[in-house]
Amino acid sequence: MSVYVDDMKAAFGNMVMCHMWADTDAELLTMADTIRVQRKWIQGHPTLSFGKHRNASWVHFDIALSKRALAVRAGAIETDRFGPVIHTAKLMLRHAESIGNAELAARASDKIARFEALRDEKAKGPLL
User: Fold this and answer.
1) Up-side HSE of residue 36: CA atoms within 13 Å toward CB?
2) CA-CA to 65 of 20 to 30 Å: which in 20, 28, 32, 118?
3) pLDDT tens profile 11-70
4) H helix count then E strand count, the chain
């Protein structure tokens, strides 16, 4: 079980933001407490999120880069822009397997494979 931060850099007011998510809600909330991000800013959670933040497609926090640095020092795993997509696809795969939905499991597996291939291509760098 782990907490993750991506390398996204989105301007928000005078801050630059990235995403932080985890394998479990408990881990995510513990890290938020550790780096002093208020729990009210959680997004995508069915009960803890408020207003439009409840409609996010996955449970995460948008955090400032200064908080990202604190999270990494506290043990968060750094990932790239593909991290959130692969993470949510893995959650979908686990869910599909738990309910015996082979079609959903196949779609999730395909999504994981496609984004891991994109990640590999990006790691190779530009073609000459």
Assistant:
1) 3
2) 118
3) 999 999 999 999 999 999 999 999 999 999 999 999 999 998 899 989 999 999 999 999
4) 4, 5
Orientation of helix 25-34 relative to helix 65-73, angle to 10°: 110
Per DSSP, 82 falls in state: T
DSSP state of 56: -
Q: Report the distance separating Cα 8 and Cα 93, nearest Å.
A: 24
3-5 and 77-78: which strand pairing? parallel
Q: What is the pLDDT of residues 79-110, one digit of tens each?
A: 999 999 999 999 999 999 999 999 999 999 99
**Global pTM value:** 0.86
